[in-house]
Amino acid sequence: MANPFEKRATEYLRDDEAFLAVVTPEPLATFFQKPAVEGRLYDRLTMIIGTPGSGKTTLARLFQYSTLRALLRNRGLTTSKPLIDTLTACGAISDDRPTLVGGRLALEGEYREFWEFPYPEELKTGLMVALLQARAVLAWLRNFIAAGVSLDDVEIVPRADADAALTAIGGIHGPDLLTRAREVELAIYRISAALMPPDAADIDSEAAAAYRPLDVIEAFRIREGEDVFDLRPLVIFDDAHSLHPTQLAALKRWLARRELKVGRWILTRLDALTPADVLGDLGEEAEPEEPGLKRAREITDIWLQSHAERSSQRRAFRKMAKDMSSRYLRQMEVFNRRGLHSLGDLLSTEPEIVAEGKRAKLAALVDTLQRKHAISAGRRADLEAEVDSYLSTAGEDGEDVRLAMLNILMSRYAKRIPQRSLFDDGAVDAEPSKPITADAGVAEGARIHLLHRQERPIYFGIDPLCDASSENAEQFLQLAARLVSQSETQLIRAKPPTLKSGAQHKLLRERASQIVKAWDFPQHQSVRRLADAMAAECVKKSLEANASLGGGANAIGILQEEFEAIPVTHPDLARVLQFGVAYNAFALVPNHGTKKKVWCLIELGGALLLHHGLTLKRGGFLERRTSDLVRMLGEV
């Protein structure tokens, strides 16, 4: 097959078995298992919010009944057991049998068109809700058919007090439910498809209002031979960001009602939220609660990118990305027949040392710095010993990194001793005001200096590839695709498949630049302008001779209280930041405590870090004010 990394395999694999072969269980364990164990995943409205490519639709497909049945049919496969175990922990499987029937509805097309009709808002909401309920029933029944279950063996378990409403939805039997759902769908579709919308007086709104299967159905009861078992219905509304904001609010209000017994999920991008929602404390919406709606109690929010427990999330994403890439490599015959199933094994972690001529210039630069600051030979020897001790302990080598680290330590030493007067003569051996130590930060700073001044590769190996993906599955695949394609080419040409670090670095930076150049989302020009200005200041800071921030900066920090006011004080800036976060240009880290102050960090996304040559290590930021962001954006 073609390189599946070039396009997310789950987008074009219609067969459930083929789909399951490339799906990793890690996101389920990371985001869904905890609310499932706490009983918050199926008994109330669940909002699943993520950037494009974060895997929302892929996760939704796993909960469809036909997918669960296909997975259990193939429970003997080694790739199936981790998925079965995780879905069991998420409450979707019990005793080797599905516990629910999921149906997915994509909220695109005519749903948004309802809001353009010249009808009262109540009528438009009623028509939309009736159409969604009809299609939810159809989605559930089609899942049974796809799984090989006859509708004659399907019936619903209605609520005890729903006799009148039960008649309106067609009764309890599968074929009758199907017939009635099709009738309602057709009647409402004719309204939306009409060249001229009919008069509101001609629409039987009462008939639409009477069709309330989500209020009636408690469970589906299935007969399989002698066995009879119940399934919880789960309706999954995907692409909710396509709806009008008022329309989405009405949908959320309707689905948040506690009396509904069906599981209901809304999948959406950050576009659909307000700037205050996105820029506020992630996971806690800033919008006012609806009358009678207690959000924390009645809605479960699952953010597929979150500031909470960031180090553990980075580790979880690395694990997920490695598993996903392994499953994708197995789909490519050129790798599979050679037993090459680990992307990490194809990516060399051996650094490429800069050329001898450049190393000589670097050594001369160190000598010049020593003379400039009159650093004694003994003091230089001490600094060299400090660098050598770190490198031996860290298991690193390379004369280029050694020289660059020594250059940084000398610059730090010069800043930590009293300034020399014009009349001082001879070498300096004063004790610094603070000990000079070589550590991982100095080593990372040295590598960044070497990247910009000697073009030494730093982006290579599987972990940097994962970290540059902004914890986004699609971005990981976009970056990995170039590496896999190059490795495939080398295999076809009878060369070793492993990519050298320089080749990885070059391919990743080229692909990242293409990703940034191809941005076409709302406000993308303003986002790019702000991101480029932020990156320029971060690069300048990162290249300071003494590497004051170690590996350098890759974020701007605004005092938390000042940042929270941006939606009110600078609404245009808030919109730019919202779309930057929504499309992986930025990541927000609120409530970051340092220097006895609380900051909100605006981190540059992975593609931007590769494009501008900044560290992938987190934590280094520049202290700024909101006015600095406005200046960067070029606003008056």
Can you offer a commentary on this structure?
- With 636 residues, the chain is of the alpha/beta class.
- The protein is 50% helix and 12% strand.
- It is built from 29 helices and 13 strands.
- The strands form 3 sheets. Strands 1, 4, 5, 6, 7, 8 and 9 form a 7-stranded mixed beta sheet that branches.
- Strand 11 (586-594) and strand 12 form a beta hairpin.
- Helix 19 (399-415) crosses helix 20 (440-454) and helix 22 (473-492) crosses helix 23.
- The longest helix has 26 residues, at 121-146.
List the helices and strands and how they pair.
Blueprint: H1 16-21, H2 26-37, E1 45-49, H3 56-62, H4 65-73, H5 80-89, E2 93-94, E3 97-98, E4 100-106, H6 110-114, H7 121-146, E5 154-158, H8 163-168, H9 174-193, H10 205-210, H11 213-216, E6 217-224, E7 227-238, H12 245-255, E8 263-268, H13 275-279, H14 295-298, E9 299-303, H15 310-330, H16 333-336, H17 356-372, H18 377-394, H19 399-415, H20 440-454, H21 462-467, H22 473-492, H23 501-517, H24 524-542, E10 555-559, H25 560-564, H26 566-569, H27 571-582, E11 586-594, E12 597-604, H28 606-612, E13 621-624, H29 626-633
Parallel strand pairs: 1-8, 1-9, 4-7, 7-8, 10-13
Antiparallel strand pairs: 2-3, 5-6, 6-7, 10-12, 11-12
* Secondary structure: number of strands: 13
User: Which percent range describes the beta-strand content?
Assistant: 5-15%
Helix content: 40-55%
Number of helices: 29
Shape: elongated
Mean pLDDT: 90
In the predicted model, the low-confidence regions spanning at least 5 consecutive residues are 281-287
Q: Which oligomeric form is depicted?
A: single chain
SS class: alpha/beta
- Main beta-sheet annotation: 7 strands, mixed
- Alpha-carbon distance between the two ends: 53 Å
Task: Work out the radius of gyration.
Answer: 29 Å
